[in-house]
Amino acid sequence: MEKYELVKELGYGNFGVAKLLRHKETKELVAMKYLERGIKIDENVAREIINHGSLRHRNIIGFKEVILTPTHLVIVMEYAAGGELFDRIKAAGRFSEDEARYFFQQIICGVAFCHSMQICHRDLKLENILLDGNPAGGPLIKICDFGYSKSSVLHSVPNSTVGTPGYMAPEVLSRRSYDGKIADVWSCGVSLYIMLVGAYPFEDPADPLNYKTMVSKIMGIQYKIPEHIHLSQECRDLLSRIFVANCAEVCHANQLKYVICDVEN
């Protein structure tokens, strides 16, 4: 740790604390996640290190190293200065279809790479999608937080209900084994809907905290596009193809990126 100097604390979570540090020689800024050694260092942490450490892609937050101190396990990662995509949407209310497409293309590219490496994320949400700042070509998406991830090569078939309720696919809520890749695609669809509409697709606007109603609407795939939101037919068709419960013919992420168009176009 002697080669880094503290800049500021970034925030707290169930895992512990995240801090921003600067490398004393290179001046590179890095984000460090501090986990107290002991019972918090569980199989989820092990999967996060193994799975995230194997991924190298411009739309995935860079994994750098793990440092052990007498009191903590520290995961060192790339720093995304632009913050969460969720906050950007919250400030804007919602995105235009063109702006949503720009970000969704990148999300799909990152998820497609995870899936090509046989890794499903299982907690894709706008709070786990960061922005790298505002370079000349526009902000780059950076997927983060692989604590719930699973590898089909190293780990068992997903069967536990993990993730964030509003983003969960019906099969994840059914408490049976499911395809983690298809569940990831569903979560991507929820993110796209939120970008376009500014609300969660399966949330009851009159009672947004009613979890039972939300689960019922997810299981019944009951969502609609508000009348004042004008979307192309292609975009509506894409959402309808994503929001299909545990359906084998649903496109995986590496196919969906071509449905929308190549990210470079």
Automatic annotation (TrEMBL):
It comes from the Eukaryota. Its EC number is 2.7.11.1. This is non-specific serine/threonine protein kinase. InterPro entries: Kinase-like_dom_sf (IPR011009), Prot_kinase_dom (IPR000719), Protein_kinase_ATP_BS (IPR017441), Ser/Thr_kinase_AS (IPR008271). Residues 4-265 form the Protein kinase domain. Keywords: ATP-binding, Kinase, Nucleotide-binding, Serine/threonine-protein kinase, Transferase. Transmembrane segments: none annotated. It catalyses: L-threonyl-[protein] + ATP = O-phospho-L-threonyl-[protein] + ADP + H(+); L-seryl-[protein] + ATP = O-phospho-L-seryl-[protein] + ADP + H(+). It comes from Lithospermum erythrorhizon (Purple gromwell). GO terms for biological process: response to osmotic stress. It holds the Pfam family Pkinase. One of its GO terms (molecular function) is ATP binding. Belongs to the protein kinase superfamily. SUPFAM superfamilies: Protein kinase-like (PK-like).
